[in-house]
Amino acid sequence: MLKVLSLKCFSGDTRPCEQFINAGRDSDLMIHEATFEDDKVEDSIEKKHSTIGEALTS
Question: Which residue range is the domain that position 35 belongs to?
Fold first, then answer.
């Protein structure tokens, strides 16, 4: 059976935030870009971007 995606959620790279998490909670597709690897968390905070791990777990 083919399911049509009806609700999508996209974030350009940003810090994890409750608003995006809530927006994506009931989405069929959620895309959260990430700039930094997990060992660069200080850089990601300074530049207001996410690490890969943060994007995967938000």
Answer: 8-57
Distance CA 1, CA 39 (A): 42
Largest CA distance in the chain: 46
**Residue length of the chain:** 58
Does 3 fall in a domain?
no
Q: Is 1 within the bounds of a domain?
A: no
Total structural domains within the chain: 1
| Residue-wise pLDDT tens digits, 37-55 | 999 999 999 999 999 999 9
